[in-house]
Automatic annotation (TrEMBL):
Record domain Glycoside hydrolase family: where: 697-796
Single GO biological process annotation from the record: carbohydrate metabolic process
Domain of life: Bacteria
The DUF4982 domain, residue ranges: 625-681
Protein name: DUF4982 domain-containing protein
Length: 832
């Protein structure tokens, strides 16, 4: 039967290139020359190569972040982190019966330009840093001896214009199957509910491969398990496959009273496909899918299961504090949950094929997705990247659109752009007839659309990035010109804000405006010109304040929705500043996922929960008597503000705005009371705090699964003696972990921090810091201790659980590999 082994643990890593790669095999010195290329002679990938001075690493791994060399020569757009080349080695033993198996090694993502060798044999190269890939290594592995895989990664080039990291930054696994097997990504499940909801037709395509040297009779059992884990339908077919051949089988199953996948109720079905040969099950493969309908309509926007749903979306890059691009599944899950809590229901994987764990979290938590290729390209390379994306991802119920690219200004309004988009859309329809395509077009949509139409190209769903020249009537104008064309705002707002920063004195950023920033940044409030404050009044020429962007999308039914740039800050794109800024300020949350104030504007508008958020903080010692702008984001009708018990006035909250007061500072307590229909619904207090006195550690989760992969995301807050977070504290903390866990990294969201994310020491930024701790596979209590000078230390205990319960990162299936060798040259190196 199929076995899937995680290969994430126990890798060795060396930063820099290795040029002497030949092995001193039987013929000794002469054949070590780098120009003597023979099969199986690659030294780094041979058992016995001396990697004793390489470091131990765990996949996912981002060596650019780990190397932590901030360098002003590296463009700020890429986070000013020095890039380069690195090598990985991993030794593994296979069970003895593996000689009868087909063996594949699967990589979910390596940034970028990787070459892989196994046991001295070159097995392939993969250029794209974002698509997943796999190699069949059956002929070059041994069951009786240890095996070695070596991977060279050249991350010195860019693919995008943001921080992209470097290394094996997504999961790796070995898959052992019978010679009769279901191909990797070999199932495609198309599920269609009846309009009356009584039943659903599920059409299953299964691609089977045989490596046997004779024809084989077999049965394919396709069993569908319902969201309750019970069988919901099945189909069995018998057939014969010729020697060394592949074939695609199609089956239909009817499911009675299907539970539909939706944003509020993400019901998941699972298809268990089993190949039975001579009465014995020889391969099994699981495909998670959902049953739902998606429609884009020129009048009503987006419809999910027949219901109109306004897309309240965000665009995101994959980058997080402490880990860079190597975001573990548990951290991706945390990020999607944070977005859901804000009321966000849609995610655009800008601008590249995402980590599978993002899509798994969106399926499980109920978040629709636009899945995007890296470039608009119809060469062999471009079409193969699109094919790879669609074949990998087409079973995810969360995906509602394939995006053929973003803002390709060099081609989008030209004949070549028309040809390329046309070829891509045609291929996407062929690979997945169940979904439509979009493309994120910037600049002037009307003339570009007109050009496309005149030249015979019709994108399925128009994707519009921003409003040119702040023309808020642009959606309406488009709809009037093309009343039969559905569209969405694929990229919007680009509001800039810095968590916890409200006044010029608290930052010297304004000294470092980039040339581009000087020309294109807009400060809508001249009071804070030059400062990217947390009020969210700064944006690029093409951008907007959150209130403006949402109003434009909300106003008309025919606008499918919007995708705010971005859900989270990411490294790079430090606009409008340059060095020493290294992190963007576009996020609704910072790089750690700590909400900025504008998070609550969206939450107030995007959820039906009562929301009242008051800011700024109230620690302005030395500014007594000075006027401070106090704002409330809220979905209450009215908010009344009190300073130390005295009313500063009751204000109506405009639907696309906020309540605002100017208050002369005096220490004490600001209190906001939120009213609906004149009834008091919510109060919110912001108080002047005392000096830093203690560290408070907290986490949403205190139980982890001891699977080497699960991660606890811990907030470290600097608090006063009363337990109130000190909003401007930048206390330097030192973290230590006791028990079966490991410190993975830290972050604080400060866009100018050059502190090492992998160090155990980290300053707070505006009172907060984040620590990521991973289980090391053993059960027991993990204790994180945080210490700092002059304050009481903080402690938190997280339990690492060895039970078989599926983890929060439950999509990962883990199996221990047999003990690995260290790679030291020794007697086991037979034949050398
Ligand atoms: C868009 C672009 C994004 C990002 C954003 C910043 O034009 O598609 O990748 O650069 O601008 O505002």
């Amino acid at each position: 039967m199929r076995q899937t082994w995680s290969l994430n643990t126990d890798w060795k890593f060396c930063y820099g290139d290795i040029t002497e790669t030949n092995y001193d095999a039987v013929h000794k010195e002469r054949y070590r020359q780098p120009h003597w290329i023979k099969s199986g002679n690659h030294g780094v990938a041979k058992w016995g190569y001396d990697d004793s001075d390489w470091i131990d690493v765990h996949i996912p791994h981002d060596f650019v972040l780990e190397n932590a060399e901030y360098d002003p020569q590296v463009p700020a757009s890429h986070g000013s982190l020095k890039k380069g080349i690195g090598w990985y080695r991993r030794t593994f033993k296979l069970p003895v019966d593996a000689v009868e198996k087909r063996i594949c090694i699967e990589f979910d993502g390596v940034f970028r330009n990787s070459s892989v060798w196994v046991n001295g044999h070159y097995v392939g190269a993969h250029l794209s840093g974002y698509t997943s890939f796999a190699y069949d290594i059956t002929e070059v592995v041994h069951a009786e001896e240890p095996n070695v895989v070596a991977v060279r990664v050249d991350a010195s080039e860019f693919e995008g214009w943001w921080y992209e990291g470097g290394g094996i930054y997504r999961d790796v696994r070995l898959v052992l199957t019978d010679s009769l097997r279901i191909q990797q990504r070999g199932t495609f499940v198309k599920a269609k509910p009846d309009p009356d909801g009584e039943k659903a037709l599920v059409v299953i395509e299964t691609e089977v491969a045989s490596h046997y040297e004779q024809a084989i009779s077999f049965e394919l059992h396709s069993i569908i398990m319902g969201p309750d884990g019970k069988p919901a339908g099945k189909s069995v077919v018998s057939t014969v496959i010729s020697a060394d051949d592949t074939m695609t089988l199609t089956q239909s199953v009817v499911i009675q009273e299907p539970l539909l996948w939706s944003i509020d109720s993400p019901e998941l079905y699972s298809l268990k496909s089993t190949l039975v040969k001579g009465g014995e099950a020889v391969d099994t493969y699981e495909t998670v899918f959902g049953i739902r309908t998606i429609v884009f309509d020129a009048e009503r926007g987006f419809l999910l299961n027949g219901q109109q749903v306004k897309l309240k979306g965000v665009c995101c890059h994959e980058d997080h504090a402490g880990v860079g691009m190597a975001v573990p599944a548990a951290v991706n899950e945390f990020r999607i949950r944070r977005l859901k809590e804000m009321g966000c229901n849609a995610y655009r994987t800008s601008h590249n094929p995402p980590s599978p764990s993002i899509l798994e979290a969106c399926d499980r938590l109920g978040m629709v997705v636009i899945d995007e290729v890296r470039q608009t390209d119809a060469t062999n390379e471009g079409l193969s990247q699109l094919t790879s994306l669609i074949q990998r991802d087409r079973n995810h119920p969360s995906i509602i659109l394939w995006s053929l690219g973003n803002e390709e200004m060099n081609i989008q309004g030209k004949a070549s752009g028309v040809r390329i988009l046309h070829a891509m859309q045609k291929l996407a329809h062929k690979l997945d007839p169940t979904r439509k395509c979009t493309y994120g077009m910037n600049a002037d949509w009307l003339p570009i659309t007109r050009y496309h139409e005149e030249n015979g190209f019709h994108i399925d769903v128009h994707g519009f990035n921003y409003m040119m020249r702040r023309n808020w009537d642009a959606y309406n104008q488009f709809h009037k010109a093309y009343p039969d064309k559905p569209f969405i705002g694929t990229e919007n707002a680009s509001t800039l804000s810095t968590r916890g920063v409200y006044r010029k004195s608290s930052t010297d950023c304004s000294l470092n405006l980039s040339e581009h920033g000087k020309v294109t940044a807009i400060w809508s409030n001249p009071k804070r010109e030059g400062l990217v404050s947390a009020y969210g009044e700064t944006y690029p020429l093409w951008g907007a304040q959150p209130e403006e962007a949402w109003k434009a999308a909300e106003e008309y039914d025919f606008v499918g929705g919007l995708f705010v740039w971005t859900g989270f800050d990411y490294r790079g794109e430090t606009f409008p500043y340059e060095w020493p800024s290294v992190i963007s300020r576009y996020g609704i949350m910072d790089l750690c996922g700590f909400p900025k104030d504008i998070y609550y504007y969206y939450q107030a508008r995007w959820t039906s929960r009562p929301v009242l958020h008051l800011f700024p903080h109230w620690n302005w010692a030395g500014s007594e008597g000075e006027m401070v702008d106090v704002w409330a984001f809220s979905n209450m009708d009215e908010v009344e503000l009190f300073l130390n018990g005295n009313s500063a006035g009751r204000r109506t909250v405009p639907e696309h705005g906020h309540a605002e007061w100017q208050v002369a500072y005096e220490a004490g307590e600001l209190m906001a009371c939120g009213y609906r229909n004149n009834q008091l619904v919510l109060t919110e207090v912001v108080a002047t705090t005392g000096e830093p006195a203690q560290i408070l550690l907290s986490s949403e989760r205190t139980v982890l699964i001891a699977d080497h992969e699960d991660v606890c995301i811990i907030q470290a807050a600097i608090a006063d003696a009363a337990g109130r977070i000190v909003p401007n504290a930048d206390t330097l903390m030192t973290f230590s972990v006791e028990g079966p866990g490991q410190l993975m990294g830290t972050g604080n969201g400060n866009p100018e921090s050059h502190e090492d994310d992998k160090s155990a020491c980290r300053s707070a930024f505006q009172g907060l810091c984040q620590v990521l701790v991973r289980t090391n596979g053993a059960g027991g209590d993990i204790r994180l201790i945080a210490q700092a000078e002059g304050v009481k230390r903080g402690e938190i205990v997280i339990h690492s659980e060895t039970s078989n319960k599926r983890s929060i990162a439950s999509a990962l299936k883990h199996a221990e590999l047999l003990p690995t060798g260290t790679g030291q040259r020794d007697a086991a190196d037979g034949g050398v």
